[in-house]
Amino acid sequence: MKCLLLLALTRINRSKSVPSSDNASSHTVWVQQSTNCILKALDCSIWINSIQLAIIDKYVMWIAYFPTDRKLNRPTGEMPRPNSCKGAFRKGMETLITNLPALWIWDHQIHYTAETTFMKTPTFAALLFKFAFASFLSLPTTELAADDATIVIDYPTTIDLNDQAHRQVIVDREPGQYLGHPTTCLLEDGKTMLCVYPKGHGRGAIMYKRSDDGGLTWSNRLPTPDNWSTSQEVPTLHRVVDAKGKKRIIMWSGLYPARLAVTEDDGANWSELRSAGDWGGIVVMGFVEPLKTGKGHYMAMFHDDGRFFSKNAKRTGTFTLYKTLSVDGGLTWSKPDAVYKSSEIHLCEPGCIRSPDGTKLAVLLRENSRSKNSHVIFSEDEGKTWTVPRELPLSLTGDRHTGKYSADGRLLISFRCNSPTASRKGRPYEGDWVAWVGTWDDIVHGRNGQYSVRFKDNTKGYDTTYPGVEVLPDDTFVVTTYGHWIQGEAPYILSVRLKLSELDEIGSDPDDKQ
User: Fold this and answer.
1) Does residue 285 have a cis peptide bond before it, meaning omega lies within 30 degrees of 0?
2) Which residues contact 488 (CB under 8 A, 6 or more apart)?
3) Which of 36, 171, 255, 461 is most exposed, with minimal Cβ within 10 Å?
4) Considering all CA atoms of the chain, what is the largest pairwise distance in Å, rounded to the nearest integer?
5) What is the spatial distance between Cα 208 and Cα 287, in angstroms, rounded to a whole number?
6) Facing residues of 259 across strands?
7) Could you tell me the CA-to-CA distances from 49 to 123, 134, 150, 155, 321 in Å, in that order?
8) Which of 484, 500, 488 lies closest to 449 in space, CA to CA?
9) What is the reported pTM?
């Protein structure tokens, strides 16, 4: 097996010659290309759990940047000598092969962005990697049955709340009528909660309900302005406050043109839907995030595939992620700017998480071509610039991520469990309403998190889960969504209530996880 791996490395190294100049940047590119070549060979040959892949990744970068004839205390930024790069790279890989079992606990934080460099890997080398590396991957994992092989992935502890009916509250249900895609808004009193959702699949007249006891009980459907019946897409609710402290709740409705309704009395009275500008998009808005650039400043994001950004537009095959800004407490919004676009990976339905210290933003993204995991981008300047998108672990892969922090600093992120096509068979809770529990650092470092939780089994494909997530003053999460909860019946709106401390109790008891 070691010989096969070395042969694969030789094939890869022959595909790219080492730069002969002393230019540091050219050597950086060569090292990145070589490393990416190895990682792409691994990626296209076998399934590797994310912890193992991350450690291999970090070790490869370490051996590539620190030749064998230099000590580890090299000053930051100093590059290896040109004539030592290739030898160090091969020598390091030989060390990796020899000492692989001991390397699983190696945990220095050296990061590598695979998206920065692309290089075609010889098929022969990839096949050799498949056989050579398979025998080394021996950490405890979750094994998932495939058609003709066993796919091995790393996964957090799974907890199934599907049958815990005491946690479930029906928000709205109408026999034979499709009810879907809710969002919620919790007011500052910690108990008044608003919920809106379309009467239909992704579009239709907007239904509106209110809870005065933190989601334990819900009102009948409340009156709404007449033109709410013309909504073309899923509505989304957001609390906003202007520079003078005036509180409002805004409700978006998407496609072209994007429209906005406003209440200034916490939902007692609403305006009609009015155009926000000569533009539109899909799932407007994925989130509305307050910014530190000034009081009443907000950023919102959405996506489009060419059909709805302008009037009479057509699908282009390119997915574009847009941002728009407000400086008047959410009443008016700027012409959207493109943040990222691609025809290869289809990133959409953004959901935002701010770091615990408030200095960074992470936006989690659905990948709609179903060829990759979900992705994440980061900003350290209040959304002015963003990192290159990178994949999230499979445990965080799905659609319409919505998350909040608990009092202990952990995150609960609710979403639809929807995997890349190649990963679907056997993944726990595929097609269901799930949540990921972990930390901000887990997202930053690509870790799998602590728990994967199923709230409810969806009985029809992937038709579920555009979630609302709220946290009550006693640290109870109230998560709300739609789904086909009963086989053969129309979907309806359901809430589930839980505390992370309850998940800890379940997670500590092996007999209590299902």
Assistant:
1) yes
2) 459
3) 461
4) 76
5) 19
6) 253, 275
7) 22, 12, 13, 8, 29
8) 500
9) 0.73
